[in-house]
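User: quick one
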Amino acid sequence: MTQIRFTKDHEWVRLDGDTATVGITNHAQEALGDVVFVELPEPGRDVTEGEACAVVESVKAASDVYAPLAGHVTQTNAGITEDPALVNREAAGEGWFFKMTLSDKAAFDALMDEAAYAKFVEEA
Amino acid sequence: MSESLKITRLDALNRELGAKMVPFAGYAMPVQYPAGILTEHLHCRAQAGLFDVSHMGQATLEGPGAVAALEALIPGDIQGLKPGRQRYSLLLTDTGTILDDFMVAKISDTVLFLVVNAGRKEADFAHIAAHLPDGVTLTRHEDRALIALQGPEAAKVFARFAPASETMSFMDVRDFEIDGIGRIRASRSGYTGEDGFEISVPSDTAEKFVRMLLAEPEVAPVGLGARDSLRLEAGLPLYGHDIDTTTTPVEAGLTFAINKRRKIAWDFAGGPALRSQMDNGVSRRRVGIQPEGRAPARDGTEIVDASGAVIGKITSGGFGPSVGAPIAMGYVDTAHATDGAPIALMVRGKPLPARIVAMPFVPHRYSR
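Assistant: Done. Structure below.
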């Protein structure tokens, strides 16, 4: 079963079996504006929760993307390095950043669900 | 947004247009409209962009000694400037560094019209006022709005309201009486590298005039975000980033602003210092920088040579939407300031290959 969770750094995490896919939320891409460059972690890298592991740059500024949970990066999305605007067009889908296996799958459930994230954005 | 921010005469319209407002030089200013920086930038290069730049400082310097008084503070020739013409110039410190860059228009032999940077206007006008003889007055126009209409279609659009503007050349300045708006002052100039006008408009009718321009099919509002990427592509320095009180016009590559006549006597603020720099050279220069990859290098990025030694710093950098690649400008040691010279930019701890290149990145399209 596929589940989606969100972080306070405006990333989404989708869990399919053992693999988590990570991207930035639609709210985040709107705030950033036109994305012109992304830098992704090397597959094989171990990351800790909250570690800066990717960069997204808009015309205006550079922002870090953080590992939502601890784990092991397994794959990155060449589609967004070739066409960074895909992050704007498809933030929640084809514009994903990287896939990872989680050190602790239980930690996934502690992240915000969609309703909690919507409330978080509204209150921010 | 902080309550202490000032607003421009176009604030309500900017908000109605859906602008994202940010603090800039003490004002709440539109950084972008809903179209976004990239689209706004490209629209300005393709058709016509309308900018609210009312935060900038406008003033009239008037009196029989106005020209001489201003010339004492700048390296430009105002005496030889014809009425109806405008010139880019620099307010200099006694050591030849830059207090501000600004536009001066000659309205008549005794009346000059100045447009200075928003973040510098208090300091500029205080500096000028402190150096005026009796009989010369400086009058600020805080009540007037300032807008820029820029792009290849700008002249065609503006001529619908001011037909006589069609015959104006780059850097001409003229006043027009517009039905329902009143007297406006337009200069054929701008900060995008495109043809266009900067227009001073009475406060009470500024919003009405902007609505008239926005109703034209070629015109779309453009925010400060795209203004920055447009001027960067045009190779134009931004005060506070690329030039300031630690840089001189010689280092900044602005020696065109040091007039030939003024170079005989060097009788202006900073003159002797600049004469020495012109004679003996300078240790660093402002240059254009083209990163070879796709990663933008921002203001403050260190520039290193092949051995990793620091040779300079980026002062403006980002993505050039019309170039379709990252671009930057900055200062490097003179030995490295050669077009084509390979350098590296320290971005997130890694040296990214780049080259020194000639500016502008996008050719100017002024109407000469």
